[in-house]
Design brief:
Layout lengths: L10 E3 L5 E3 L3 E3 L9 E3 L4 E5 L3 E6 L4 E5 L12 E6 L2 H16 L3 E6 L10 H7 L6 E2 L7 H19 L3 E5 L3 H13 L2 E5 L11 H11 L3 E4 L2 H9 L6 E3 L3 H16 L2 H5 L7 E4 L3 H4 L2 H13 L4 E4 L2 H9 L9 E4 L4 H10 L2 E4 L2 H9 L4 E3 L7 H5 L3 E3 L4 H10 L16 H8 L5
Helix pairs in contact: 1-7, 1-16, 3-4, 4-5, 7-12, 10-15
The structure holds uridine-diphosphate-N-acetylglucosamine and uridine-5'-diphosphate.
């Protein structure tokens, strides 16, 4: 066995809340006589177990430390910590959690609390039957640094207690980045679901989160071939796997159920293809009051009834700026549960959105999409003619939405075959 690096920086908190610095711990090689481990820290003794170190201080405090980069042997039961916190992550985690369970892995779900309103969080656990989080960190909202920093601290504490073999993170939110940093600093194997996506727009907070997370991941689980190429361009080739898109897995599982069970069209009094559906939440569209007002007015000028489930960020920005303008055709509604959202997407004439997930779902359901952004990570949807980029230009929005048509060719199968999560569950058991 090679000499292993062990978490060495900072303090490790013992059972009585006592903290001691740990430096230069070394594990003996397997061929050394008694396989003893030792620490240069005079006050501590160290014993090794399968994947962790137990450090015992003279004061009778003990703490476990997770070993750095110990390879996972194929076929073993693996303990995974799935870290989620924002709406799309609950949806992405659903197929993965199900597959991890089917593969017999142990799983612990950590919810950072980045999203916390019932309609942004609980509704997905209830409707989709996602296992309840084992750890709810209650971080809530904040500026990027404040929110991400508090998440890193709380996630690190949780990982030290749980000692997983692998941490799974999803997408590109502050929750993703915080969990990636916490896992990477503890030397725990990190797997990124939706790795390799790039907008090449460094003003987006999500772009920082993606790039940084990818660069510290051991397993990069890419939804598309484009994502694999993006990583290659940044010199990342090791641990990269094309698995397909987990949101496609979720749509295959819930699309038909949504059609059968959701009563949302009737309750809103709309007919199939008799309305447009809009979502907006990107900082780029919400944070400048003029841009947001212009965007809402443009949606109103399309002419269709426009159903607009309001993300709390967007509602807060509209309220802060004196409320929405007087609207004729736009109906502002509460954020929807997943089934109602899928039902409205499937029957919309056109979808207008700045959401990554909603662009993909429009494509899966073969509904034309108008993307309220200057670029997209999901370039395949644009190349195939199912998605048009219009940024926040009013005339372009109105024209694209009025002209929206289904292209003659069906959407190409670029997001996998609906088995992305099964591949992920297999890959986490293999050495990266
Ligand atoms: C976050 C992600 C974004 C993702 C989106 C999914 C980051 C940087 N952004 O954006 O990538 O596309 O989630 O929806 O991580 N709020 C509530 N209740 C809630 C949650 C949020 O009122 O349950 C309000 C708060 O005023 C908060 C604001 O929304 O300050 C923004 O929330 P935050 O999680 O910081 O970012 P999102 O815009 O939701
Ligand atoms: N979604 C939902 N209810 C809504 C709006 C969106 O269930 O009112 C779902 C949508 O179907 C998709 C996901 O949330 O699966 C997309 O999340 P969001 O737009 O918040 O984030 P993004 O994908 O842009 O990161």
């Amino acid at each position: 066995m090679p000499q292993l690096d062990v978490l060495a920086a900072g303090c490790v908190h013992g059972a009585k809340g006592h903290a001691s610095p740990v430096h230069h711990i070394r594990i003996a090689r397997a061929d050394e006589p008694d396989n003893r481990s030792h620490a240069r820290n005079a006050n501590a003794t160290v014993a090794r177990s399968a994947r962790s170190l137990v450090v015992r201080w003279r004061s009778d405090c003990a703490a476990s430390i997770v070993l750095r980069r110990e390879p996972i042997r194929a076929g073993l039961q693996v303990k995974i910590a799935s870290v989620v916190g924002a709406r799309p992550q609950f949806i992405k985690a659903w197929p993965v959690s199900r597959q991890l369970r089917q593969h017999g892995h142990l799983q612990t779900i950590v919810h950072t609390g980045q999203h916390y309103d019932h309609q942004m969080s609980d509704v997905f656990f209830d409707e989709m039957g996602i296992d309840r989080p084992d750890h709810f960190l209650e971080i809530g909202s904040g500026s990027h640094g404040d929110q991400t920093g508090r998440m890193i601290i709380a996630i690190e504490q949780t990982l030290l207690r749980e000692r997983p073999d692998c941490v799974l993170v999803y997408g590109d939110t502050n929750t993703t980045l915080a969990a990636a940093i916490a896992a990477c600093k503890l030397g725990i194997r990190l797997a990124h679901v939706e790795a390799g996506l790039r907008s090449y727009n460094r003003t987006m907070p999500e772009e920082h989160n993606r790039v940084l997370t990818d660069h510290c991941s051991d397993l990069l689980l890419c939804p598309t071939q484009t994502a694999v190429h993006n990583l290659e361009r940044e010199g990342i080739v090791r641990g990269v796997h094309l698995v397909g898109d987990v949101m496609y897995d979720a749509v295959l599982a819930f699309g038909a159920r949504a059609r059968e069970q959701s009563r949302i069209l009737a309750s809103l009094g709309v007919a199939p293809r008799g309305y447009a559906l809009a979502t907006v939440h990107r900082a780029y569209n919400t944070d400048d009051p003029d841009v947001l007002q212009r965007l809402v007015r443009a949606l109103d000028a399309v002419g269709d009834t426009v159903l607009f489930p309001l993300h709390p960020r967007t509602r807060a920005r509209l309220n802060a700026n004196g409320g929405s303008p007087t609207l004729q055709h736009v109906r502002l509604i509460e954020p929807l549960g997943y089934l109602d959202m899928l039902a409205l997407e499937q029957h919309a004439r056109v979808i207008l959105t700045d959401s990554g997930g909603v662009q993909k779902e429009a494509f899966f359901f073969e509904v034309p999409c108008v993307t309220l952004r200057p670029e997209t990570e999901w370039v395949e949807t644009v190349a195939s003619g199912w998605n048009v980029l219009v940024a926040s230009d009013s005339d372009a929005i109105v024209a694209a939405a009025r002209d929206a048509k289904r292209p003659p060719e069906k959407p190409p199968r670029v997001f996998g075959d609906g088995n992305a999560a099964a591949r992920i569950a297999e890959l986490v058991t293999k050495a990266g």
